[in-house]
Structure formats: structure tokens, C-alpha cells
Amino acid sequence: MVALISQENVVALVSRTGRELQRYRKGRRQVVGCIPYRYKIGDRTSLEAPEELEVLVITSQKGKGMLFPKGGWELDESKKDAALRETIEEAGVRGTVEGKLGKWSFKSKTHDTFYEGYMFPLLVQEQLEFWPEQNVRQRIWMSVSEAREVCQHWWMKEALERLVNRLTERKLGRVRQIVGSIQCIGGGKSDL
User: Fold this and answer.
1) Is 106 or 177 the better-scoring residue by pLDDT?
2) 72, 89 in Cβ contact below 8 A?
3) pLDDT in tens, 157-171
4) Contact, 45 vs 170, CB < 8 A?
5) CA 147 to chain centre
6) How far apart are alpha carbons 165 and 182 in whole angstroms?
7) If you write DSSP's letter for every residue of the chain in order, what string do you get?
8) Which of 49, 93, 45, 105 is nearest to 68 (CA)?
9) What pLDDT does 179 receive?
10) Which of 40, 55, 74, 177 lies most in the core, judged by the most C-beta atoms within 10 Å?
């Protein structure tokens, strides 16, 4: 008997290495990353309060701090594809990569060079049992406030704030739509 396995369900257990395919812009290495998140309460799509949200942080390879998954954006992939690849390699999760949170310029603490970093939210749909960097990193789900405390990069903390604001604004947008619909149905003003 032969079992067929879809390629989309297979994860390579080896991380990409080397800088041959790395993207640079004006001498700055281009990096991309994700903030993996999930709602504590099931099928949510917006945020009532930051306490409803959990984010996944990972240890740095050298074990000197916590951060969100990120790495080099390579010539043969889009930003979103690179962000998802890095998140699978470093944190062992997959999901939906959403719209860019922003772009940051920062100086590497170890290489004395400047980088440009792009961050994306990733709504986690699957947590893998095995992933490429499981032997060199730990992954930990935590609250937004805990992540603010432990994340070692200022620009990642800023990206986290943008994510929380975006998810909160989704909720406010839906409330405005509902209130607008009630006003239209009633033909006048509502007490809401």
C-alpha cells in the first residue's frame, strides 16, 4: 500500500543557511519576521482586551534573550513567504501571514551593521511537533504584557503594539458597522 502525502503538510527539518541568497538594500541586510498569535477563546477575529491574546516568543540561538521569529529575506521568496519560512524554522508553527505591521531600521547588537526589518502577524493554525530549530530554541506562549517585558528588541516591541492596536481596531470597526446598520434600519438616530 502506498500513502500519498501532500507537500504542503511536509516541513523540512533543516533550516536554510548561508548568505548567498540574502537580500540587501543600500548595504543593509533585509530581515523579515512574524509575531505568532492566537486567541485564548476559540474562533475570534478581533480583540476585546489584550488579555485575550497570546503570542509565541522564542529564545535566541545563544540563549541570551527572547524574541519573535525572524531571519533573512532571500532572493527567491516574497517577504511573506520568507516570514512564514523563518517562523516554521525557528518556532515550529504555521498559519496565516497577515498584512505587514511595518518596517524598522536597527543596528545589530553583534555584527555592528544596520538592518531593515519587516514584521507580520501570523495567526497560528498549527503547532508542529518537530521543526528545524527545536534543539537550539525554546518556544513559549505568553500574554502580551509578558512579551513586552521579555522581548529583547525595541522594534519587535513596537511591532507587537501595532498588532494589538490593529486587532483592537478590527473590533471597533465592526461595532461602527453594526451601529451604522442600526441607524440605517431605523431611519433616524439610535440611542446606542
Assistant:
1) 106
2) no
3) 999 999 999 998 887
4) yes
5) 13
6) 26
7) ------GGG---SS----STTB-EETTEEEEEEEEEEEESSTT--S-S-GGGEEEEEEE-TTSS-EE--EEEPBTTS-HHHHHHHHHHHHH-EEEEE-S--EEEEEE-TTT--EEEEEEEEEEEEEE-SS-TTTTT--EEEEEHHHHHHHB--HHHHHHHHHHHHHHHHHHHHHHHHHHHHHHHHHSS----
8) 93
9) 47
10) 55
73 Ramachandran zone, left/alpha/beta (phi>0; psi -120 to 50): beta
**Contact at 8 Å (CB) between 60 and 147?**
no
- The strand pairing partners of 118, in sequence order, are 32, 103
pLDDT exceeds cutoff 50 at 94: yes
Amino acid code (one letter) for 84 = L
Residue 5 has pLDDT above 50, yes or no: no
Would you state the pLDDT for residue 67? 97
